[in-house]
Amino acid sequence: MHLQARNEELVIKAAKVSEEDMAAVQAECERRLGAAERKVYALVKERDALRRGSDKLSSAHDLLKEKDSIIAQV
After folding, report:
1. Rounded to whole angstroms, how far apart are CA atoms 11 and 8?
2. pLDDT digit string, tens, across residues 17-66
3. Residue 27, helix vs strand vs coil
4. Handedness of CA 27, 31, 37, 40 (dihedral sign)
5. Rounded-to-integer distance, Cα 57 and Cα 15, Å
6. Rounded Cα–Cα distance for residues 36 and 28 (Å)
7. Euclidean distance between CA atoms 65 and 28, whole angstroms
8. Which pTM was predicted?
9. First vs last Cα of the chain: how many Å apart?
């Protein structure tokens, strides 16, 4: 009986350790996920800003072509 009681104690202790490990792993995953989400948000903002800048450059380039064409006609 003593061995059976000791075995039950060890099983309970192992379950407790597993729960603690799971909580630690979950907290680490949440931390990493939060960091990744912040990086993605920053990259999306940067991409959008670059896209807007590219659109402005494209518009300026088209305007320059049009003016060059007008100058060539004159």
Report:
1. 5
2. 777 788 888 999 999 999 999 999 999 999 999 988 888 888 888 888 88
3. helix
4. negative
5. 62
6. 12
7. 55
8. 0.57
9. 108
